[in-house]
Amino acid sequence: MGLTEPDRHTAGLRTRIMAAARDVFLLGPPERATMDSVAQAAGMSKKTIYRVFSSQFELLRALIEEGVADNPPVRAPATQSDLEPELADILGRILKLVADPGSNALLRLIFIELRRYPHLIQHAPQRSRGHEYVASWLTATRDAGHIEFDDVDEAATMLLGMTLQDLPMKMMLGMDSDLDAETLSRRCREAARVFLVGCGARRPAD
Description:
The protein is mainly α. The chain folds into two domains: 5-67, Arc Repressor Mutant, subunit A; 80-198, Tetracycline Repressor, domain 2 (Orthogonal Bundle), CATH 1.10.357.10. The protein has helices at residues 5-27, 35-42, 46-52, 56-67, 83-98, 101-113, 129-143, 152-164, 167-172, 181-198. The chain starts with a helix and ends in an 8-residue tail after the last helix. The model has no long low-confidence stretch (mean pLDDT 79).
């Protein structure tokens, strides 16, 4: 059975409120991050917002949960020669995610609001999307017999540390990365190569 008219109305209000909240809380200056600003951006009263979200905490929680997207399915590389390019590609996508303004705004929002809403941290991901994706790929690749390591969390952490270096801190502080696209791509390839050698992967013959 489809949505009733009241349900469709509420869904429409929620969509407008979430769009306004993303603009206010994630893209706007911290001093503008208020429910009054959300109401103004959404073109409705605060009373209407509170009919959809019972509190500012509930709205912030919805923003966080919306930002934690599912990763695509992970499969082990089909052959040994696929290891390095596949891993470098994964690391490149994670670098783009780390540099994404929306992702960093979401993290800053959590840190800023933790004092007022300490329970907010419970709705944040315990592991970053990048860490989870890398760990899944490493596990699938180990299970396929291509590489060897003991602890997947430790392995993923070390690999991401090699790749990201100080980029997350710079982005969190609002600093621009001084690395161009080619440098970042080269970093991903080198991190993949060094890591795979350390895990016992054999490089394909030239």
